[in-house]
C-alpha cells in the first residue's frame, strides 16, 4: 500500500505535476476560447434574428396597412353600390357580411353625423356615435371597441378610412386588422421570436396570450427612447431581461410614436448551446487529463522506480545490510548508477569484513594486554612472597636464618596474607571480566524509576556518610518499560563513581524528570570534574581514572542504557563537578525486551 | 306531425342544455333559469299561483278559511309520497314551512309578517311558531295575525317546497346522478301527486355561453333557454334590470343615476335586439302589474369615471353589450364581469345587470322581491307596507303603482325591458310550458317516438 502512495515532493510526484501542468492549461484555454466563441456567435445570431424579426414585423404592419386601404377601397367602389336599401335591422348585418367577404377584422360604416350604421366588431354600438379614437401620433391606428363576452374590450387596429356616398348620403367606411395578441403571435411564430407592443401612453402591453414579455413590469426603454428610435428605427435599444425566471434577449423599435415594437428570444437556446460546448470541453479536458496522468504515471514509473530501488538499497546499506543488491535492468545513466552502487556495496562489504577482522584482532590484543597487565600486578607480590618464604625456608635449613625465634612464622603469615590478598584481587578482576562478558539481556516490565532510584540509594547510604545527599524525584511519574535490576545496576555504578569522586565529601544530587516522551535520571557530584580528554574516553572499556578500577563500570552503564533504547549524557567542568544523565524512552513497549 | 296528432306517450330521454348547472338541490330562491328548472323538477310546493296571485292546488288539494280570514286550513293530497318512499304528512309540511320561514326568501318574509308568532321565529328569537299547526295527519292550519290579502301566495315560492325528514322532494322527477358542473340526471317519479310524467329521463348538461343554439342545432340537446321569442312557452315573466349602488360614486348623486337611466333607451334596445320583449318601463312583469305608463323624468347628463358592471349570465351577451354601449355613450368607462345569476342578486358592484323572474307570481310579492335587490328607497316603504294590508283589489293596485313609481324614481332600479322567458326545443318535443314566474314545466312534456 505504501508503494501506491505518490508523494508530491517526490520525483514521481513532481513528474506527474509537470505532466499535468503541461497538459491542462492549453486545454483550459481551448475550452474557454471555444465557449466564448460559441457565445459570441450565438449572440450575434440572436441579434440578427431579432433585427430581422423587427424588420419583418414592421414590414407586416405596413403590408396590413396597405391591404386595409385596398380592401376598404374595394368595399367603397364595388360592394356598397351593390347593396340595395333595406330595413335598418338588415343594415346592422352589412358590416359583418362585408368584413367576411373582404377578410377584415374590423369594419364599420358611419353616417354623416359619425353614428354607427353598421359595425362588425362592435355591433352593439349601432345608431350611437362612434367614440373610438386614433392612437396618439398614428393616424393609421385606432383603439377600437370590440365586442367581448358581455361587454367590450379595446383593441389596437390598423385601419383605413374612405369617404363614400351610399344611398344618396355621405358615409365613412372604416376597416382594418386587429393588432392584438393573436396577430402578434402569428408574426412571432413566423419569425421564431416573441413579439409584443408596448403602449407607452397607457403603460400597457399588447402581447400574445401567455407571452412572457407581457409580464415585463418596467421595460428599459421609455417613451423618450421610443420617440428617438422613431427617427432612426434601425438603431433601437436592446438588451437582456429576466422574465418568469428565464433570460430573454430583446430588441425594440418605435412602430409609431409612443408605440414600441419589442421582439425577444429566450437566451436559453444559446445558453444551452454554450453550456453544451462548455460541458464538451470539460469532458474533453478531463479525458485528456486522465490520459496525461496515465502517461505520466507510466513514464514517471519508468524513471522513478530504478531511482527508488537505488534509494531503498542505499537505505538498507546505511542500516548495515551490505549484502543488498539493486537490480536495475536499465541500460542508461540510471543503470550505470546502479552498477556503480553495486560495486560500492561490494567494496564496502569487503572493507567491513577486513575492518571487523582487524578490530577482533585488536580487541583480543587489548584484552590480552589488559588481562596481562591486570594479572601481572597481583602475581608479582605473590611471587615475591613465595620467593621470600623459600629463601627463609632455605636459610632455616642452612641454619643461616638469623634470630630463629619465630621469625619464620611471622614472615610466613605475612607472606601468605599477601598472597591471599592478591589472589582475592585476581578473583575480583576475573569476576568483573566475566560479568562484562556475560551482560544479560534486559527483562522488561513496568518499572517505577523513582523506586529504582530509592532502592539504589539505600545500598549506598552507608558509604555516603560524608556526603550531602539531595534527591529530587519527580512526582507522579508513569512507570516505564525497563528492567529494574539492570537499571539499578547502571544507576549504582554512577552513584558509586560519584562517591568515589568525592573522598573528602561533597554533594550528591539525584534528580528524576519526565518530559518529551523521555525519562531522565541525573546523577551529579561535586567532585574534581573531568577533562575534555577524559570525557572523550569515558565510555571506552577498561579506561579508568581510579586506582584499582577496571574501566568497565561506565561501559556497563552504557551497555544497559543502550539495551533500553536510551542514551547516557555527561556534562562536566573541572573543579565544579560532573553530571551523568540517563535518558530513557518513556513509551517503550512493555512486552519483549528492549533489545528487540 | 302524425305522431303529435296521436297525443302524448310515455318514454324517452330529454337532454336540456344549460349554461349554469345548479350546484344544490336544496329548496331556495332560484338564482337563474337552471335553478328554477331543477326546483320545479325535483320539488313540489303546497300551492301554485296563477297570474292574478290566486292559489291553485298542488300538494294541498284544498284550502279553506275561517275566523274572518285569520285561519286557513290546508288538506293534503291523499297517498302522496316523497322520492324516498315516505308518505307525506302534516308534520313534513310544518317542518318544511318552518325551514322556509327562516330562509332569505322575500316571500318567506311576507309569510312571517302575516303568520302568528312567525316574526320572532324567523328572527330566531323564538323557536315556537304558534301560527303553524299540524291539525292531524293530513291537515295543516295557518293562524294569521290579521286578515291580509292572498295570505297563502308565499307558499307557492320554490323555497317553500315540501321535503321529507331526510330531505327528499316530491317533484315529478327523482335526481339520480350528478357530475358536478357537467351534468345531472333525473328519472320519472311514478308517485308524483299529478301522476307519472311522460318523459322517462331528463338529463341536464352544461353548455357554454353562446353555444346553446349550436348545441340544439347539432341535436346534442333537445331544449335550451332562449332570450326573446322562443318556440316553447314565452310569457313576459322576466324583467331586465340595471341596479345601481347609491353608495358608490358617481352613483351616489341622483343626477348621475338619472343620467344613466336617460342614456339607456329601452325601446331602442327592444326594437333592435329583443324581439318579443316589452320596453314598458315597469319593475315587474305587466302580467302581474299592468303598467300605467308613468314616465319618470330623467334629464340627460354627461358622466365621468369608471364603473364595474356585473352581468348575470342569463342576460343575452348582445343585450349586455348594448347596455355597455349606452353607458359608454353616457361618458362612463365600464369594466364588465359576467357572474352567476344568484351572484348578480348580491350587492357589491356599482352596477348590476340581471334578469329577474319573480319567485311567486303575485304582484305584491314580486315588487317586494325586486325592491330587495337595491338599497331601500324611503318613498317606497310606506306604499309597500300598505300593499300588504290592503284587501281591496283596486286600492291595493294603486299602492303597488305608488311603490313601483317610488322605486323607479330613485333610479337605483332601472327597468330596461320586460321580456319573455322562453325555451327553444328540438322538433318532436311537446307539452313544454313556462309559468308566469319563468319556470319551465316539463311534467307534461313528451317526445314523439
Write a structural description.
The complex is a heterodimer of chains A (596) and B (449). The relative contact order of chain A is 0.06. Chain A is an alpha+beta fold and 596 residues long. In chain A, α1 packs antiparallel against α6, α6 (268-318) runs parallel beside α7 and α10 (484-501) packs antiparallel against α12 (553-563). Mean pLDDT of chain A is 81; it is low at 591-596. Chain A is rod-shaped and about 205 Å long. Chain A has a 6-stranded antiparallel sheet with strand order 2-1-6-5-4-3. In chain A, strands 8-7-11-10-9 form a 5-stranded antiparallel sheet. Chain A has helices spanning 11-79, 88-92, 94-102, 181-191, 223-231, 268-318, 333-398, 407-437, 449-460, 484-501, 532-537, 553-563; strands spanning 106-110, 116-119, 133-135, 138-148, 151-166, 169-178, 194-199, 204-206, 238-243, 246-256, 259-266, 445-447, 467-472, 480-482, 506-515, 518-525, 567-573, 577-585. Chain B has 449 residues and is of the alpha+beta class. Chain B has 13 helices and 20 strands. Chain B has a 6-stranded mixed sheet, sandwiched between helices. A 4-stranded mixed sheet of chain B has the order 1-10-9-8. In chain B, strands 4-5-7-6 form a 4-stranded antiparallel sheet, covered by helices on one side. In chain B, α11 runs parallel beside α13 (393-409). The radius of gyration of chain B is 22 Å and the shape is globular.
Amino acid at each position: 500500500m505504501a508503494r501506491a502512495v505518490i508523494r508530491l515532493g517526490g520525483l514521481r510526484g513532481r513528474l506527474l505535476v509537470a505532466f499535468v501542468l503541461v497538459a491542462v492549461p492549453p486545454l483550459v484555454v481551448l475550452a474557454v476560447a471555444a465557449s466564448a466563441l460559441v457565445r459570441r456567435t450565438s449572440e450575434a445570431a440572436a441579434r440578427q434574428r431579432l433585427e430581422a424579426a423587427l424588420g419583418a414585423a414592421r414590414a407586416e404592419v405596413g403590408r396590413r396597412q396597405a391591404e386595409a386601404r385596398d380592401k376598404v377601397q374595394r368595399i367603397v367602389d364595388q360592394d356598397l353600390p351593390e347593396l340595395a336599401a333595406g330595413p335598418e335591422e338588415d343594415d346592422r348585418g352589412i358590416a359583418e357580411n362585408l368584413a367576411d367577404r373582404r377578410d377584415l377584422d374590423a369594419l364599420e360604416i358611419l353616417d354623416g353625423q359619425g353614428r354607427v350604421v353598421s359595425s362588425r366588431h362592435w355591433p352593439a354600438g349601432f345608431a350611437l356615435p362612434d367614440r373610438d379614437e386614433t392612437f396618439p401620433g398614428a393616424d393609421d391606428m385606432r383603439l377600437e371597441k370590440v365586442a367581448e363576452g358581455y361587454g367590450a374590450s379595446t383593441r389596437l387596429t390598423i385601419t383605413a378610412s374612405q369617404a363614400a356616398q351610399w344611398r344618396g348620403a355621405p358615409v365613412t367606411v372604416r376597416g382594418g386588422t386587429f393588432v392584438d395578441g393573436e396577430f402578434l403571435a402569428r408574426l412571432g411564430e413566423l419569425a421564431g421570436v416573441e413579439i409584443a407592443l408596448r403602449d407607452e401612453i397607457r403603460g400597457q402591453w399588447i402581447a400574445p396570450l401567455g407571452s412572457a414579455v407581457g409580464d415585463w413590469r418596467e421595460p428599459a426603454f421609455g417613451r423618450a427612447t421610443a420617440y428617438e428610435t422613431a427617427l432612426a428605427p434601425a438603431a433601437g435599444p436592446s438588451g437582456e431581461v429576466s422574465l418568469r425566471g428565464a433570460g430573454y434577449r430583446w430588441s425594440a423599435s418605435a412602430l409609431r410614436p409612443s408605440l414600441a415594437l419589442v421582439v425577444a428570444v429566450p437566451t436559453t437556446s444559446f445558453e444551452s448551446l454554450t453550456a453544451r460546448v462548455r460541458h464538451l470541453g470539460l469532458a474533453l479536458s478531463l479525458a485528456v487529463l486522465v490520459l496525461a496522468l496515465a502517461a505520466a504515471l507510466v513514464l514517471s514509473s519508468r524513471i522513478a522506480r530504478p531511482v527508488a530501488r537505488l534509494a531503498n538499497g542505499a537505505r538498507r546499506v546505511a542500516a548495515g545490510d551490505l549484502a543488498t543488491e539493486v537490480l536495475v535492468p536499465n541500460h542508461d545513466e540510471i543503470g550505470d548508477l546502479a552498477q556503480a552502487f553495486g560495486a560500492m556495496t561490494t567494496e564496502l562489504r569487503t572493507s567491513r569484513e577486513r575492518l571487523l577482522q582487524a578490530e577482533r584482532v585488536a580487541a583480543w590484543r587489548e584484552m590480552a594486554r589488559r588481562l596481562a597487565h591486570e594479572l601481572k600486578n597481583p602475581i608479582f607480590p605473590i611471587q615475591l612472597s613465595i620467593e621470600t618464604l623459600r629463601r627463609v625456608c632455605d636459610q632455616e635449613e642452612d641454619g643461616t636464618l638469623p634470630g630463629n625465634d619465630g621469625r619464620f612464622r611471622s614472615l610466613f603469615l605475612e607472606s601468605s596474607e599477601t598472597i591471599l590478598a592478591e589472589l582475592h584481587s585476581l578473583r575480583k578482576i576475573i569476576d568483573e571480566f566475566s560479568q562484562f562478558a556475560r551482560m544479560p539481556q534486559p527483562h522488561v516490565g513496568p518499572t517505577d524509576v523513582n523506586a529504582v532510584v530509592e532502592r539504589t540509594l539505600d545500598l549506598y547510604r552507608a558509604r555516603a556518610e560524608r556526603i550531602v545527599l539531595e534527591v529530587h524525584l519527580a512526582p507522579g511519574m508513569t512507570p516505564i518499560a525497563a528492567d529494574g535490576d539492570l537499571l539499578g545496576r547502571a544507576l549504582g555504578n554512577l552513584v558509586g563513581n560519584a562517591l568515589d569522586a568525592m573522598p573528602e565529601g561533597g554533594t550528591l544530587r539525584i534528580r528524576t524528570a519526565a518530559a518529551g516522551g523521555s525519562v531522565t535520571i541525573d546523577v551529579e557530584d561535586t567532585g574534581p570534574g573531568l577533562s575534555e580528554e577524559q570525557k572523550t574516553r569515558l565510555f571506552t572499556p577498561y579506561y579508568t581514572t581510579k586506582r584499582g578500577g577496571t574501566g568497565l563500570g561506565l561501559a556497563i552503564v552504557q551497555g544497559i542504557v543502550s539495551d533500553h533504547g536510551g542514551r547516557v549524557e555527561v556534562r562536566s567542568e573541572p573543579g565544579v563537578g560532573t553530571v551523568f544523565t540517563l535518558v530513557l524512552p518513556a513509551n517503550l513497549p512493555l512486552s519483549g525486551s528492549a533489545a528487540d | 306531425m302524425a305522431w303529435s296528432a296521436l297525443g302524448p306517450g310515455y318514454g324517452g330521454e330529454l337532454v336540456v342544455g344549460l349554461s349554469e348547472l345548479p350546484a344544490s338541490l336544496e329548496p331556495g330562491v332560484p338564482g337563474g333559469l337552471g335553478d328554477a328548472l331543477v326546483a320545479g323538477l325535483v320539488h313540489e310546493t303546497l300551492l301554485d299561483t296563477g297570474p292574478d296571485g290566486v292559489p291553485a292546488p298542488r300538494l294541498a288539494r284544498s284550502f279553506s278559511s275561517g275566523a274572518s280570514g285569520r285561519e286557513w286550513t290546508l288538506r293534503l293530497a291523499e297517498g302522496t309520497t316523497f322520492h324516498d318512499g315516505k308518505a307525506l304528512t302534516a308534520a313534513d309540511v310544518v317542518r318544511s314551512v318552518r325551514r322556509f320561514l327562516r330562509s332569505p326568501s322575500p316571500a318567506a318574509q311576507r309569510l312571517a309578517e302575516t303568520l302568528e308568532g312567525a316574526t320572532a321565529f324567523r328572527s330566531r328569537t323564538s323557536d315556537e311558531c304558534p301560527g303553524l299547526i299540524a291539525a292531524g295527519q293530513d291537515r295543516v292550519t295557518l293562524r294569521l295575525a290579521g286578515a291580509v290579502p292572498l295570505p297563502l301566495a308565499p307558499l307557492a315560492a320554490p323555497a317553500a317546497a315540501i321535503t321529507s325528514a331526510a330531505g327528499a322532494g316530491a317533484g315529478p322527477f327523482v335526481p339520480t346522478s350528478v357530475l358536478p358542473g357537467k351534468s345531472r340526471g333525473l328519472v320519472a317519479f311514478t308517485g308524483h301527486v299529478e301522476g307519472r310524467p311522460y318523459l322517462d329521463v331528463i338529463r341536464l348538461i352544461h353548455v357554454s355561453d353562446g353555444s346553446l343554439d349550436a348545441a340544439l342545432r347539432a341535436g346534442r340537446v333537445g331544449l335550451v333557454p332562449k332570450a326573446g321569442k322562443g318556440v316553447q312557452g314565452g310569457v313576459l315573466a322576466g324583467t331586465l334590470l340595471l341596479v345601481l349602488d347609491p353608495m358608490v360614486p358617481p352613483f351616489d348623486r341622483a343626477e348621475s343615476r338619472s343620467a344613466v337611466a336617460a342614456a339607456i333607451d329601452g325601446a331602442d334596445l327592444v326594437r333592435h335586439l329583443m324581439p318579443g320583449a316589452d320596453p314598458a318601463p315597469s319593475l315587474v312583469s305587466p302580467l302581474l302589474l299592468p303598467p300605467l305608463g308613468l314616465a319618470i323624468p330623467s334629464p340627460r347628463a354627461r358622466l365621468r369615471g369608471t364603473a364595474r358592471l356585473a352581468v348575470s349570465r342569463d342576460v343575452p351577451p348582445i343585450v349586455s353589450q348594448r347596455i355597455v354601449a349606452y353607458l359608454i355613450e353616457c361618458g362612463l368607462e365600464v369594466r364588465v364581469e359576467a357572474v352567476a345569476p344568484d351572484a348578480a342578486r348580491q350587492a357589491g358592484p356599482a352596477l348590476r345587470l340581471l334578469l329577474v323572474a319573480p319567485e311567486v307570481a303575485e304582484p305584491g310579492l314580486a315588487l317586494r322581491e325586486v325592491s330587495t335587490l337595491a338599497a331601500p328607497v324611503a318613498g317606497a316603504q310606506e306604499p309597500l307596507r300598505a300593499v300588504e294590508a290592503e284587501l281591496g283589489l283596486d286600492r291595493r293596485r294603486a299602492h303597488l303603482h305608488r311603490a313601483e313609481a317610488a322605486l323607479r324614481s330613485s333610479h337605483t332600479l332601472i327597468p330596461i325591458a320586460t321580456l319573455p322567458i322562453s325555451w327553444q326545443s328540438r322538433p318532436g318535443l311537446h307539452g313544454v310550458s313556462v309559468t308566469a314566474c319563468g319556470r319551465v314545466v316539463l311534467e307534461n312534456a313528451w317526445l314523439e317516438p
